[in-house]
Amino acid sequence: MRAVLAPLGLAVAAGAATLLVALVDPGEPGHYPACPFHTLTGLYCPGCGGLRAVHALTQGDPAAALGFNPFVVIMIPVVVLLWGRWALFSWQGRRDAGKVINPAYVWAFLGLMIVFWIVRNVPFGEFLAP
Q1: What is the model's pTM?
Q2: Number of structural domains the chain divides into
């Protein structure tokens, strides 16, 4: 039972954060800090629009969520799947529970994130800006 405390703790923290974003609209000024990268450079980081995307999802508006940050929307099911695998491995007491992600997938994720970051900041990728 002790092995599942980490996945359960993360689930509780993520659930609390999601509840906060659901209840406090990130589109309203003054509730959340501005993105420091965007403030300093005027460019969008891969996470810009992510809070608004999560808020839109919690309000039942997936189209708006995709408009704010499609990368975050697409990655949410992937993260949930990986969390579920980690929780299952922990529950089963497997020694490899902490190694649920193949390093190749991590590199692929980082590569996609960098491509998304670049494309959303060039003229032909304006549709990806929040």
Answers
A1: 0.87
A2: 1
